[in-house]
Please model this.
Amino acid sequence: MKRLALLAATAALVLPATLPAQTATTAPAPAAADTPTFSAAAVRAHVEFLADDLLKGRDTGSEGHEIAARYVASQFDGLGLKPAGDNGSWLQRIGFQKTERARTPGTLTVTGPAGSKSFTHAGDVLIGMNAAEPKLDVSAPLVFVGYGLENARLGLNDYAGLDVKGKIVVTLRGYPKGLPSEEGAHLSATKGKIAEAHGAIGMLSIGTLQSMKARPWNRMVQFADEPDFTWVSPEGVPFDAAPGIRVGASLDDAAAQAVFAGAPTSIAAIRKQADKAGGKPKGFALKSTAQIQVESVSERVTSPNVVAILPGSDPKLKDEYVVLSAHLDHIGISPAKPGDKPDTDRINNGALDNGAGIATMLEVARAMAQSPNKPRRSIVFLASTGEEKGLLGADYYARHPTVPGKQIVGNVDLDMPLLLYPFTDVIAFGADHSTLGPIVAKAVAPMGIKLAADPMPQETIFVRSDHYMFVKQGVPAVFLATGYANGGEKAWGEFLSGAYHHPGDDMSQKIDWDAGARFAEANYRIARVMTDSDTPPQWYKADFFGDLFAPDAAKAPKQ
Model:
C-alpha cells in the first residue's frame, strides 16, 4: 500500500497536466486557426508512465491498474475537468467476480446407442464455469439446433419444430456463410439467450469446417484455464446474459462424434452442408444424453473506471453527452514457461494496447479543456477497466452511466492505435451504420487523412471492442484506428504476429510519436463535429443495429 500511495502521489509529477503550446513538440500545423496544437512529447510521456514495468501490465484488479487509474485521474484533475465517478470522485468502482477452476478437472460424459464415453476438460472438450454455481452436475437429453439462431429479418429460425425445454442444445459455432459478418457475429453472441428463451438448460458447441480453420482446437485449448470474469451489479449479483443456461462446453471431433452417434445425419454431413453458401443444417433430437460435472472457486475483486466530464457551453445542448473512451487495463504478467531464464521478460506492458489510446484521449481532453471555444455538448472522458476480460468496464458503464443514459448521443472509442508509421488514413469500425461515418470523413479531411473502409470485415471488429457496449444501449458509436495505407498494413501484420498481447508491446518499439500527435488531432476534430453540430450522430434508416437497439430514435437517410 505504501508503494501504491507513493506512485499515485508522484504520478502527476511525471507530466504536467497542461503543456504550453509554444514549447510542445507538435504534429504538422492544423488546417483550422482555432484548432490547438498537439504534443508528441505529451503522448510519449503518458505512454511511458502507463507502460512502465512498475505497473506490471495493468491487469484488471491489480495494483498496477490502480496506479494507472490514479494517474489518469490526476491528469483530469489538472485540466480542470469535473469528476464523474462515484460520489463526486474520479473513479467508478466496479465489483468483479473472478471464477477459476477447482483442482478436479471437469468432465463431459456422453451416453448414447454405443454406450458411455467420458471426456476431460482441456482434452477433447472445453467445459465452461458458472459464476453462480460453484459445483455443477447436470444431465439432460441432447437436441441439435443447427446454428442455434433466430432472427426474422435475416430469415433465421433454427428452433422451429424443436422441443428443447429442460434439455441441452448442440449448436454449430459461428453463423451461416453469406450472412453479413457483423450481424452474424452479433447473433452468435446471443445464442445462449435464444436457447434460454426456449427453455434449454445447457449448450454444447461444435466447430464447422470454417470455424475450425479460423480457430484450430489447439489454439482454443491454450486459453482453457483462463479465469472467467463478470461484473457484479450494485445489488451484488454477478452478471450473466443467460442465467438459465447452467452448463456449457465446446467439443472437439471425438466428443462431437460421440454426441452424434446414431443420429439421422452425421456430423460430417452437417459440416459439409454448413460449408456451402447459405447452408443452414436443420435441427433434430439426438439419441444421446450428456452429463457435465465441473467445480470452480470464485473471489470478488474490484477495479475502477476513471470518468471525467467537460461541461458543454450551449444552454440547449449541454445536457447531451459525447463519450470519448479508451480502455486502461491490459493483461498483466504472463505465467512462467518451462525453460524460461530467470531474467525472462514476462510483463505485458501494453504500450500501444492501450497506453496509446489513453494517451490520445488525454491529449484530446487537454486540447478541449484549454480551447477558448468550449464544446457545445458535454464530453464524458472514460478510461475503462476490464476490456481484456470481455469489454466489462465499458459494459458496466453503458448500463450504469454516471450521466443520464438516454442523453448520451455518440461514442468514439480508441483502442490500440498503431503509432508505428506516418498514417494517412483511419478506419472507423461501425462507420457504415450511422452518420458517424461521414462525420469522421469530413473531420479528418483537412488534415489530408482519408476514411478507409474496414480492411478486415471477417474479423468483425465492430462487435469486439468497448464501443459496442454503447451500441447495445442504442448509442451510435465507432472504434477509430490508424489505417492500412502508407505502410500501415505491414505494420499491423507485424504487430499482431509479434508484439500484440506480448511483452514486446513496450517502449522498445519504434513508436512514431508525431503520429501520436496527429492521431490526437484527428480525434479532436471528430469530437468537435460531434459536440458542436446542431444535430447529434444518428443511426441510418433501416440499419440492422439501429433498428435493433434504438428502434424509436430519429434516423438519417444513408449517405
